[in-house]
């Protein structure tokens, strides 16, 4: 299994800067790269990465996206006088040239290509290139927004041409709309471009009508361009996650890319003068994690924006730590998305509805949107270029991101004799069994002197304690009686006063009574509608075709289990596979991989001892290897979707991150 995270950085790219006064460009400084790299060094992350050298993009590489006349024009800039450079710069917007910027722009694009080469040839699993000038605003024949060559667009074309990649997903989490990328691929169904961006109803730079949610791509590319406008500033972690759960991830899994490229701009983080958002740097640990089970883990991030040197450095470190496989930090105190974010999610989902089967049941455009569409056209004439006022975002403070320590044992296993311990795992037995355990579990144990049941259960409870004290990251346990073991875990977690999220895949009802204290939440996948109500912390997800229904499970995992799980914020995730369920191995692995974003990756997988064939694949994902791709997903069954929507309607007043539509409050 491929491992290794590439870091691509060269200090040569710090050797250009603004040589004259221009308030619009003064934030794009060389220190952006130096503080990022220094933070990686300070946190010991450089040594953990595979350092890959930059290279200059060739003319042929650059001409994959840009015109010859543009390239020829830029080629002249190294020999220009200061006056010539200023005059040359005038023809473009919000960008500056410098005698060395052409060289650096070739290195920035070449760095992205080096990253693609190393990931596609399997030298590394994933990686990030720290580059400047950024790229996502530059267009075929124009520099723009600090960008000279469109690094990520060139990388996407290069991946298709040189490595035969058929489907590329570009995730642009930068706070600006990468219009250059949109223009490059808007009629290309092999490249799915997703961007969120500060928009404020077209009042924010670059003030383009085509950045709005209804610009979905053209001709064959219709549906392969996704714009999520932020119409207010101050968006928080929960708003970003809401868009991943309810827009990006369902579509990304349906698209099933061979490669994921990230326009990794960190001006979407708190403190940035451009974005003026409130999402904290640790959010990028989660955004990165949520992409890492796509494309067999082939994720290439390329730096775009990020202008607050403190949040930029922290965000870069958070991203690298996740690429390296470190446990994600706890997603604390997530309330629901704000009204404006909810409206954007609602509008995007309805605009994309005709193109994606995972959205075919999405709500139609809210009525207020239909009426205001005309009003906005009227405002167009009134729109005036807002005067550049100094943003005093330098004073904004936020807590340091939490330490993310990898436990010395990543995956512990409790297996019956005769079942080999998978490579990389550590067999676990309880060295100090609790003599009173039989007593404590008598309500669960049918036969309290069943010694090997007792020894398995004592290993199980001891394993949970090792996870809670962060000595072990996650675990895999095979037992004879899965239901009994599950109840033992529930009882033990509650006795430790730990919150447990249980995701149980089965094919019929399971004998469990959840306490109503909210200590435990259970999501139960099955093929039968469970008649009796088992309290608000028991959530039955009914799939007509049962757990063999890949798209049904994925629809529920992405749109219900993830938002619920992130908002519940458990200390432990218990993944239970009942003997008779017919879940496919790769879906099971996706479930394990995706849910590791919760509880600092303290995931406990519980299966029946005859599931020997599933030990290695389950352990592989617990060890941090990407779950296998599921292939392009078909649409889920309509009645399953309707059942899921009824469930969402019922739960979303308690779990507001489940919302996907804005109440028609206008
Ligand atoms: N307040 C300065 C206006 C800057 N406008 C261009 C921003 C380009 C960002 C590239 S990520
Ligand atoms: Zn930006």
TrEMBL record:
Q: Which GO terms describe its biological process?
A: epigenetic regulation of gene expression
* Cellular component annotations (GO), alphabetically ordered: nucleus
The domain of life is: Eukaryota
Residue ranges of every copy of the Histone deacetylase domain listed in the record: 28-322
Q: Tell me a Gene Ontology molecular-function term this record carries.
A: hydrolase activity
Cellular location(s): Nucleus
Q: Which UniProt keywords apply?
A: Hydrolase, Nucleus
Q: Which portions of the sequence form the region Disordered?
A: 616-641
Instruction: State the InterPro entries in the record.
Output: HDACs, His_deacetylse_dom, His_deacetylse_dom_sf, Ureohydrolase_dom_sf
> Is tRNA-binding there in the keyword field?
no
Family to which the UniProt record says this protein belongs: Belongs to the histone deacetylase family. HD type 2 subfamily.
Q: What is the protein's given name?
A: Histone deacetylase domain-containing protein
Q: Supply the source organism for this entry.
A: Sphaeramia orbicularis
What broad taxonomic lineage does this protein's source fall under?
Eukaryota, Metazoa, Chordata, Craniata, Vertebrata
Gene expressing this chain? hdac10
